[in-house]
Design brief:
Oligomer: single chain
Structural class: alpha/beta
Distance between the termini: 8 Å
Number of helices: 8
Bound molecules: adenosine-5'-triphosphate, magnesium ion
Number of strands: 5
CATH topology: Rossmann fold
Number of domains: 1
CATH architecture: 3-Layer(aba) Sandwich
Shape: globular
CATH superfamily: P-loop containing nucleotide triphosphate hydrolases
Strand order of the largest sheet: 2-3-1-4-5
CATH class: Alpha Beta
Length: about 200
């Protein structure tokens, strides 16, 4: 049985975790296959510590140090969890992966995209998701789903990130989904794409 790797991308509140969880349930229950769900930053004990630093409001990070922390977490996650799981023929679902760095640290924080790409190459050991599900949602809609203390700053930042994602989606052929649709409608599209990906394999 062949291993598979897909990721979910999109701005905060776009519905990534909702769909990633649903897909994992589907893989396990309906397809009777093991599903490995990983989240970024985090997914390993060391990665979870890095996550704490990244999410701590008192952390005074530079855009570059933020990039390096994400890459450090990704490198550990990829080598210890993702690659071994794929070798065992498991289905791996990433709730954010390398494309998040291009959108957030590249477009959002203004780091040269070539630098981010090179960092990703090191941190991922060259592996790429077979499908990048990009859930596109206007920033205003996403902001309504979440509570932020620093709304104005967050809104400007997320607008840059979304614009970035839209450009990346064109360039890299993400599976783009309208995130304002219902969770059910979105799920149907995700399911169809995954059925297509594994179609014909022995389950
Ligand atoms: N299609 C949808 N329509 C309306 N609400 C949704 C939809 N999908 C998810 N939600 C709701 O929006 C909120 C954010 O969803 P979710 O946590 O899946 O997003 P996320 O992309 O993982 O966010 P984060 O980047 O912050 O982890 C949740 O309250 C969820 O129930
Ligand atoms: Mg989430």
């Amino acid at each position: 049985m062949k291993g598979h790797f897909v990721s979910f991308e999109g701005i905060d509140g776009s519905g990534k975790s909702t769909q990633a969880r649903r897909l994992c349930d589907y893989i396990k229950k309906k397809l009777k296959r093991d599903c490995v769900m990983v989240r970024e930053p985090g997914g390993t004990p060391e990665g979870e510590k890095i996550r704490e630093i990244l999410l701590d409001k008192n952390s005074k990070l530079t855009p570059e140090s933020e990039l390096f922390l994400f890459l450090a977490s990704r490198s550990i996650l990829t080598s210890r969890i993702v690659i071994p799981a794929l070798k065992q023929g498991n289905f791996v679902i990433a709730d954010r992966y390398s494309d998040s760095s291009l959108a957030y640290q590249g477009y959002g924080r203004g780091i040269d995209l070539e630098i981010v790409k090179n960092g990703n190459r090191i941190a991922t050991y060259g592996i790429r998701p077979e499908i990048v599900f990009y859930i596109d949602i206007p920033v205003e809609v996403a902001m309504k789903r979440k509570n932020y203390s620093d709304r104005m700053e967050k809104e400007d930042f997320l607008k840059r990130v979304r614009e970035g994602y839209l450009k990346l989606a064109e360039k890299y052929g993400y599976f783009k989904i309208d995130g304002t649709k219902s969770t059910e409608e979105i799920w149907k599209m995700v399911k169809a794409a995954v059925d297509d990906l594994i179609g014909g394999e022995e389950i």
